[in-house]
Amino acid sequence: MNRHDVIVIGGGPAGLAAAIAAHREGASTLLIEREARLGGILKQCIHDGFGLVHFKEQLTGPEYAERFIEACHQQGLQMLTLTFVTKIEKHGDIFIVSIVNRNGVSKHAAKSIVLATGCRERTAKQIFIHGTRPSGVFTAGTAQHYINLLGYMPTKQCVILGSGDIGLIMARRLTLEGAKVLGVYEAKATPSGLTRNIHQCLYDFDIPLHLSKTVTRVYGGDRLTGVEICAVDSQMNPLPETAEYIECDALILSVGLIPENELAETLSVKLDPKTKGPICNEDFMTSVDGVFTCGNALHVNDLVDYVSESGDIAGAAAAHYTQAPHSEITFHTGQNVAYIVPQQLSQKVTAEKTVLYFRSAKPIERCQLFIKVNNDIVYKKSYAFLKPPEMERLLFDFSALNLQSDDHVTFEIEEESHDLHHLSK
Fold first, then answer.
1. Of 49, 44, 50, 52, whose CA–CA distance to 64 is shortest?
2. What are the extents of the domains in the chain?
3. CB within 10 Å: which end of the chain, N or C, has fewer?
């Protein structure tokens, strides 16, 4: 049996940050990655825009990942690549991780686990597109992998469904490589990607964005020959009378990401139906003591800088983890708040600043975020606008509140009244 203090599962930006943080805190750390190379999805993200928060400079995905990979090598971290975790079992206060790789099957023991398993893309089956099953239907990440890593051009004339950030970036990338992007279609009434990507990837390249429209059917035998587009009503139900046929040889899907938590579920970790990731406290420890989570396995982030931040917090906390009685206070989401992460707070929280991530439930202009304890306002912050696709981050000192186990902590977003806005002018 190989013994460690911390085992980090996943070698993407979250896992790399967690392993470095655990090692920095003096823990014997093992990093496990199923692919041949570390870096996760960043390996194929050759566009820039990474690192503006963490490094205060603009980097490509591979450049951002390389800085963390280099730090791991410099610190002599133990890392296993092309290694798959087949099972995690908890025996008392020890976790037994079974793995398989080129050297065969082995087991590793640790007092704490960090799950940094990232997320996966939704597929055509998951959004119920009817029709045949031709080649030429790709997720945006797959298309990106073909072009940026394999050097294959997957399409000459395509339609992109979904206005998520990967889809927007691929609209630009495909255009730069000579493909014709006929349009980006979004079933919602508002775009799903960051505003900067809407402008830099679509408007700058004259790629049309069609809101409240979706793909309802695909056509083709061996290869896709076209798609059917329909407008949708306010409930996002297709309107058959609006159907139109668009000839194309590929359909690129950018219809959302889902945190990868199969391993977490085998450990009976409780998941949040809003984020699809684990419920955790301010240290990103899940409902199972000793199991920590971070990055896109916790919730889907907009910026890799915040993925690394959560990895750093989880890794450091995992290094200092000791089994002891504890109790958590549950956060509640009020009006206009889609979700809050973390969802819980240790009753005896000691950190002067707790990192909080949240999204609004709908686009709102001129509003205020309130943190309330038993209906008393303990914090408020004004925003010019909030949009669901754009995650917000804030720091708050809960340690000064001396919270009790029965206290009710609520996060709410309230729109400023028209009269109040008029007076403020």
1. 50
2. 1-121+257-323, 123-255, 325-425
3. C
Q: How far apart are CA 369 and CA 3, in angstroms?
A: 45
Nearest to 170 by CA among 210, 124, 139, 215: 139
DSSP 60-122: EHHHHHHHHHHHHHHTT-EEE-S-EEEEEEEETTEEEEEEEETTEEEEEEEEEEEE---EEE-
Say how far residue 25 (Cα) sits from the centre of its chain: 26
Which CATH code for domain 1-121+257-323? 3.50.50.60
Q: 57-104 pLDDT, tens per residue?
A: 999 999 999 999 999 999 999 999 999 999 999 999 999 999 999 999
Written as one letter, the residue type at 163 is: S
What predicted TM-score, i.e. pTM, was given to this entire model?
0.93
DSSP 287: S
Residue 191 φ then ψ, to 5°: -65, 155
Residue 419 has pLDDT above 70, yes or no: no
Beta-carbon contacts of 309 under 8 Å, excluding residues fewer than 6 positions away, are 17, 54, 355
Which CATH topology does 325-425 take? Answer: Immunoglobulin-like (2.60.40)
**Separation between Cα atoms, residue 390 and residue 82, nearest integer Å:** 34
88-103 burial string, b = 16+ CB within 10 Å, else e? beeeeeebebebeeee
